[in-house]
Amino acid sequence: MPHVVVLGGSIAGLAATRALRGQGLAVTVVEPDGLATTGARGGVPQGGQLHALLDMGRTQAERWFPGLSKDLVADGAVLGSGDEIRLYENGTRKVSVPGNELIGVSRTLLEDHIRRRTVLDDGVSVRVGRACGLDIRGGRVTGVRVRTAGSAEVAVVPCDAVVDATGRSSRLPSWLAAEGWPEPPADRMRIDLGYATARFRRGGELPGVTVAHQLPAAAGAAEQSDTGAMAAVEGDQWMAVIVAYAERRPSRDPAEFLRRMREMEAGPFGVVADRCAMIGEVETYGMAHSLRRNWWALDRLPGGLFVAGDAVASFNPVYGQGMTSAFLHASCLAAHLRKGADLHAPAHAYFRHVRVVVDAAWEVSTLSDLAQPHVTGPYPRGYRMARRMADWMARASTTDAWVNERFLDVVNMRRRPAALRTPEFWWRVAAALRAQAAQPGR
Ligand SMILES: Cc1cc2nc3c(=O)[nH]c(=O)nc-3n(C[C@H](O)[C@H](O)[C@H](O)COP(=O)(O)OP(=O)(O)OC[C@H]3O[C@@H](n4cnc5c(N)ncnc54)[C@H](O)[C@@H]3O)c2cc1C
Fold first, then answer.
1. Which CATH superfamily is domain 70-106+194-289 in?
2. Is the CB of 33 under 6 A from ligand 1?
3. Could you report the per-residue pLDDT of 85-98, keeping only the tens digit for each?
4. Contacting residues for 427 by C-beta, under 8 A, at least 6 apart
5. CA–CA distance, 395 with 415 (Å, rounded to integer)
6. pLDDT at 133
7. Which of 314, 321, 357 to mutate to test the pocket of ligand 1 (most atoms within 8 A of CB)?
8. Which residue has its alpha carbon closest to ligand 1 atom 12?
9. InterPro entries annotated for this entry (predicted)?
10. Which atom of ligand 1 approaches the CA of 287 most closely?
């Protein structure tokens, strides 16, 4: 049976493992933390931050781990829909979308569930260690060099193919360069992002609310207010996150966290700050830039090389696209192999598939980030017009359910951004803005 080594046992690695197993391949997962750990772990320093699983992500997660949502809910996660999901644009509550669903769950519980399922599969072996290079012979990957924890010794794990899912700080480009292969060209957009997450005891203070999300006013005012999100999660807790940029990045000071929650114009944040006890400490995380590695731009790739998840692209996490992208990359991998692709050949077609997912997420996140005063580009062609249109659309989506639904389809990665460029869509946006202008007091 052909054998694939997956580097990294986080969301992207575990989803890729399922996709490979679905094609009957034997898999070894190389992960410094092993797969037996539960809860917070060193390999995923962002794990304590509130993670939203977009609707498309949940659909894809269900594909790879059927019954996952049900299991999570049985463990205390909260599945919200329609009116239970409160979205605010600069303090104005958006009209609800009836079929819209979001699950409130911590990143650690989600990961624990999919890890547990992965280790139950007899076709998956786990190697506790850190990958540190590739063996490439005859133009294809033939092995992965792995250093066992606490030892200087490097062993080679032979394989037919490798999937790099080691996350944002993947060393794969330099491993390839060391073997005389080209590195992928990379795009970086400086975002200077600060995250802070806190947990609170949850009681009956917000009946009928599962998730609240507050975006600051588009464009001009973005530097003056925070983005916030909160979700009812397992253990009868709220997880709340405050996100801001540059000199406004939040600190670990609990008093500051509570003050900023109260200052948010969206009501639920103030209710939790005033009525719920904070549990533990405020955890912070900083991200300097969004990063996209354009693997599809390489003419020369070793055979049997795949890359998935944040190792391909990691965006401003405020748009919640990372885990959904990782699950979608697994679908690209499955589609590639299902078509009968030779595992030993360069996977150009796989990377072309992945590009579609990456470009959609990149377009949505960078268009918003470019509105921040401290973000200095690179600006795509037609940026000014695209920015204006995004502002009109955001305003229209506060009152028009159809516009909001289409907008959420793109935000949730159910549709590509092109769905927001149709004449029908813009006719509805214009109608909603006219109706708003006709309302006194708006
Ligand atoms: C602050 C923050 C908030 C976020 N919020 C959201 C959100 O709301 N929604 C969302 O969908 N996404 C969010 N993300 C993104 C999300 O965390 C990632 O997209 C997701 O975890 C998928 O990443 P991954 O599996 O590719 O990599 P990671 O989760 O980063 O995991 C990489 C894995 O590789 C292992 N590893 C590292 N080096 C090696 C090596 N040399 N050999 C073997 N293994 C190795 C690590 O131990 C780890 O297990 C957020 C990210 C950040 C930073």
1. D-Amino Acid Oxidase, subunit A, domain 2 (3.30.9.10)
2. yes
3. 998 887 788 888 87
4. none
5. 20
6. 97
7. 314
8. 322
9. FAD/NAD-bd_sf
10. 53
